Amino acid sequence: MSRKRKMASITSAGLVFAMLLSQSAVADLGTEQVKAAEETAKWVDTEYVVNGDFESGADNWDINIPKDTENWLYGSGAEKGYYCIWENKTEEEKDVSISQTVKLPAGTYKLGIKSTGAAGGLKLSAGEYVSTDLNASEWADDQSKWESIETGEFTLDKESDVKVYVSGKLAAWNKGSAIDDIVLYEKETDHTDSSEENQKGYTISVNQTEVAVENGDTVNLEAKITYDGKEVSELPIVSNDL
Question: 111 with 173: CB under 8 angstroms?
Answer without folding.
Answer: no
